[in-house]
Write a structure and sequence with these properties.
elongated; 3-stranded antiparallel sheet; alpha+beta
Amino acid sequence: MSEATIVICEHCDAVYRRRPLAPGGLARCSRCQAPLYRNRPIDLDVMLALASAALIVLIVANVFPIVNLQVNNDDREATLWGAILATYDSGVGFVALLAALTVFFYPLLQLLLYLHVLLPLRVGMRGAAFNTSMHLLRAMQPWSMVEVFVLGVLVAVVKLAGMAEVTPKIGMWGFAVLTLLLTWLNSYDLHELWDIAEERCDGRA
């Protein structure tokens, strides 16, 4: 049985053989009723466009300030890395490291892996270490938490609004767009990529 025909429930670890579904159909785990996979055809061009756009937006969001704070005519711009360094300097290095991993490094690696998988598939080939890349993509999906960061920034902005004039900057909008792009990209079933690799490629891994 190939890896593409096996489905493991991410919630209870039940193992199933993958079966064809009607268009738009959804398979659920019979043990815990969690979603297993959908029949949503993958368009490699769309996925490539999403991954490329998300990578550009990720860079923009990290280069430009997130918010501008004005207190008593004193303007200060806050960036992601400025906030991470300030957190580290305050003595909570673990929190700073976790923020850096989940908001920057994991999304960056995830997008690079998507491109590493999708670009060769687009021309009918498997990229180097295709199987490893696919397993990493599956494992990393729960650890990309850009949306949690955006929610945290919004909460902070609301709380600071009574003490300072807070103006969202390009970085904030970048993270908002990045959240939408990653959510869209991660909504695709990775098993479909396994199927495409088996159908179109020559079996190289």
